[in-house]
Design goal:
- By secondary structure, the chain is mainly α.
- 75% of the residues lie in helices and 0% in strands.
- The protein has 5 helices and no strands.
- Helix 1 runs antiparallel to helix 2.
- The radius of gyration is 21 Å and the shape is elongated.
- The relative contact order is 0.13.
Amino acid sequence: MEPSPDRVAILLPLGVAVAITFCTVIIQALAMMPMVYFVRYELRLGRAGVRFWRDIAIVTGATLAALAAHLVAIVTWAMVFSLCGVFSQLAEAVYHSGLNYSTLGDSAVISPSWRLLAPLEGANGMLMFGVSTAMLFAIVQRLIHARLGEPSSWTDKFNKDVDQAKDGQTITTI
């Protein structure tokens, strides 16, 4: 039994979108992890949460790292659009990818066979913006805790578990 053209037109873009979404999660993680370790390092040294301008610099750095990750994700989606033959020029693909990723959207210029990529890129962008927002919120929360008082017992347990994991020990707490 031959697959129907509608089924192929849905499965191929869906498969491509899932693969690119996986790539954008990795891109976001690669941008976030150094920032998390940097904030943790600054907290351990007692430099974070002490001076206002130092905290502003930390939050600004985290914001710029998140923005850079989003730009890399947009360009990654644009390269996929170019490889699929949707756009002939990369600049045009980046522009439309930016529209889709930020959920402004403009799928009217995309060929019908690849049109499903536009809303899937928008969904991916929303998820990645949510991840960035969560990271920034967590950093600001840690800076406020450092400035106003002792970290919670959960934070102490988390730091202990991370230290154990670095030493190669099995983590038994939940």
